[in-house]
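Fold it.
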Amino acid sequence: MSTTSPATTSPASTGITPARGSHRDPWSVEANDPTRSPWDVPSIEEYERQLAQRGVVDQVLDDAATDPASGSATGGQDLAERLIWIGAHGGAGARAIAAAAGVGRTGTEARRAALDDTLLPQPAAVVVARSDTRGLEAAAAAIRTVPAGVQLVGLLVSADAPGRVPKDLRTRMHELSGTVPVLVNVPWINQWRVTPGSPHTSIDRALAQLGITSTARSTN
């Protein structure tokens, strides 16, 4: 059974596409491809089958889910050099993800890069959010308002707690997967309670799914 959603208004229908750097709020310009329906997604059954194959439903990422060798090393390095992490809400974990990845700008640096192409030509953005209701709704808003001129790489959803994600939240992630090129789930990382942002294999795998080359070396 496929999910449905109310129609949304795109920049193409309004005829307004503000230029990058033309205003101070970096999240007030639609940057999604207006020709792509945000709800052009597989059924929830197919989506959950894919998640189960990667072990995401049970909060365990399978090593076989991503093959870094299948991607382009050059492309991954290019993304890493242009990367900005957009925290969709307070406590999203963008700084910890960036620290573990060893690449990308966050916070004020990321916002400035999104607005000023003299600082970072064509930034590549990954939206980061927690897997609870607040986090996913904030992610939806951030995705809709990525600044023009910024390449949206994908959405990284970081577990807000250990254990299985409730079905309603998995359904919402299914919907959001149709609004981004890639949606990646990162399980609860217990070691971050002591050493937040330390390298971890879960981050390595997430970066591989996003096509980003990391400079950090995981230890767990």
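The chain has one domain: 40-210.
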